[in-house]
Specification:
eight-stranded parallel beta sheet; alpha/beta; about 290 residues; globular
Length: about 290
């Protein structure tokens, strides 16, 4: 069974898919080791960790493709990939879908923002026309090589054109061939309920939980009760990691030693166990035998 088929089956099971956001092979290994059944490759988290910059359209297609390949080499769980706006027009979307699918994406998320795009919970977004985005969705469907690869189509229209316009755009994208919908940044539970009422019986819906963002935070079980199929926490891991790193560095600066922080760290052996060092060394030794 392919990872894309696994994701389709998870969505068909009726249990919400809880997908933490990761940004590299190590975060992916941690997510898989923790027992999650899927992960989300966050473009924002890539910008945070690779560039030390905000999510304002700096990440390119090749950088994401390289990251997908590294993650897929490390883990087998389904991978939902943030492809931003496809990095250009419909032809760019066609290339992006081909490349991301080949690298190992199980689902590819495309949005209707203009270049340069920005985080869905930041102000100042602008959108392509509905017709242009429908063309991008059609290009994505034409590019897809495997029927089970999920096309997850996002609209950022709530903050730009209003809630009703967002629903109209989502309907159009569904007509153009979306497999699942992501209506970004609903502002209250009433809007979330209306999204489910409009689309929940027809297509899987994704809810994006951003600490300090525009949408009221809900647990995965609460989102399932509302009628959502996928819950992502795209930047939570990097925010937790950054908070911890600040604490650690302050303690190291204060003490001049890591001894006061040892109970909250992996030691060398613990990290090697996580990384599978002994298994790789055994593999290497097996090739040395004659």
């Amino acid at each position: 069974m392919t990872h894309a088929t696994q994701l389709r089956q998870l969505l068909a099971s009726g249990e919400i898919v809880l997908a933490p956001g990761g940004y590299d092979a190590l975060s992916a290994a941690l997510i898989e080791r923790a027992g999650f059944k899927a992960m989300y490759l966050s473009g924002a988290s890539l910008a945070y960790t690779r560039f030390g910059r905000p999510d304002v359209g700096l990440v390119g297609m090749s950088e994401v493709a390289d990251t997908i390949a590294l993650i897929r080499d490390r883990v087998s769980l389904p991978l939902i990939v943030d492809a931003d706006n496809g990095y250009g027009n419909a032809l760019n979307v066609w290339r992006t879908v081909r490349q991301f699918e080949r690298m190992g994406a199980s689902a590819i998320q495309l949005e209707d923002q203009q270049l340069p795009k920005r985080c869905g919970h930041l102000p100042g977004k602008s959108l392509v026309t509905q017709a242009e985005m429908m063309a991008k969705v059609r290009a994505a469907r034409d590019a897809r090589q495997h029927a089970d690869t999920l096309l997850l189509i996002r609209t950022d229209a709530i903050a730009v054109e209003g809630f009703d316009a967002a629903l109209r755009r989502a309907e159009a994208y569904l007509e153009a061939g979306a497999d699942a919908l992501f209506i970004e940044a609903p502002e209250d539970l009433g809007q979330m309920q209306r999204i489910v009422a409009e689309f929940g019986s027809r297509v899987p819906l994704l809810a994006n939980m951003v600490e300090g963002g525009s949408t009221p935070l809900q647990s995965a079980s609460q989102l399932q009760e509302l009628g959502f199929s996928i819950a992502i926490f795209p930047g939570a891991l990097v925010r937790a990691h950054t908070y911890m790193a600040q604490e650690f560095l302050a303690r190291l600066q204060q003490d001049g030693s890591t001894s006061g922080y040892r109970s909250r760290m992996l030691d060398l052996q613990g990290l090697n166990n996580l990384l599978g060092t002994s298994e790789l060394l055994e593999m290497s030794a097996s090739y040395d035998k004659h």
